[in-house]
UniProtKB/TrEMBL annotation:
TM regions (residue ranges): none
Family: Belongs to the 'phage' integrase family.
Entry protein name: DUF3435 domain-containing protein
Feature: compositional bias, Acidic residues: 395-404
Protein species of origin: Nocardioides malaquae
Every Core-binding (CB) domain range: 74-157
Amino acid sequence: MARPRTPVGTFGRIEFSTLNGQVRARTRFRDVDGQLRRIEASGGSRIAAEHELKRRIAKRVDFSPGTGELTPSSSFGQLVEVWLADLDLEGRLAPSTRELYERDMRQIVLPAFEHLLLREISVRKVDQFLKTLGSTRSYAMAKHARTVLSLALGLAVRYDAMRENPVRETARLRRPPSPTLSLTVDEVEAIRRAVRGWRRGSGLSGPRPDGQLEQIIEVMLGTSARIGEVLAVRKCDVDVTVTPATVRLCGTIVSPKGKPTHRQSKAKTASSTRTVSVPTFAGAVLRQRLVLLANEEPEHLIFFSRNHTPLTTNNVRPQLRTILEQAGIEGVTPHAFRRTVATTLDRAAGADLAAEMLGHTSSEITRKHYIQPEEQVDPRTADILEALAPRTDPEDAYDSPPDE
């Protein structure tokens, strides 16, 4: 019996080598004419070289139905490679998102489905996988797995390897109830005191804090911005010539795997790019930073390392968590500053303004995830309900004995 041929588009083990600082990735690939050919690509890292290699392979493959690229008999592992190559061809994802998708797929989803053929992946199997993941690991992990699994199986449907996407028919994931915690005014003041005294005592080794951490906190409270957005603010994004001062939030700091930390001009979403007016305490901080940067180019970051390179969010977040612990505030993450802004704005002007400030497309998102519910019902209800009061004297109505 003849051994079945390897499907078109299949490639073998990827080999890596380094020459003149460039990483070269090579593999043997079965081309669209059925011939095995060696193909290679180079990049600044193993990941970059591998992505470029897969991009070149995908470019050579005819994705139209009937080529054998994806069929019901294709393995899920083969689908994953085609899906990742398709993401690279589209080029619509930010590098950090592309990296996250691949990590979630390879670490969470692929181990459960890699030995199954596409025709063997049913709604029941996907549903049980997601429910088990949510109950034994976390809701967030199950949600991430659902996203990448749906995207990959959607590609299989588009190329006629599956009739329908089984993820669409699975039960809805239920987020476990958790309170939306914002900070009180007293807690904010406790954090300010804690950050002013952090690592400033005697007998401590290493350089003393340069004051940027407390300034970052003030800008987060004054803008509602995420840590990455605050760290990505440049001189040219700040305008202190108007009253109140404004900040344009139009980028974020990213640290892609295998690449240096840098400012990404693409915001998280289209609505995340916004110009906000800031309160006086945030405006004062921004003016101080601009004085330090008087001789720097307009593109220079407002907050930066001692070498004038971008600060990483992975360094700032742990510092903020340490400050929160020292302030005696437990169970709260640095994201609480954003929730505090949302809750404060909602109390004064409603959820729509809070959503606009946070850069959300819907106030429902803000209300559900960022605004702390108010336990005290509006006291105006008492005045309104007076319309239901009895027509007689209340004391006569309740103190007189009923008629026999």
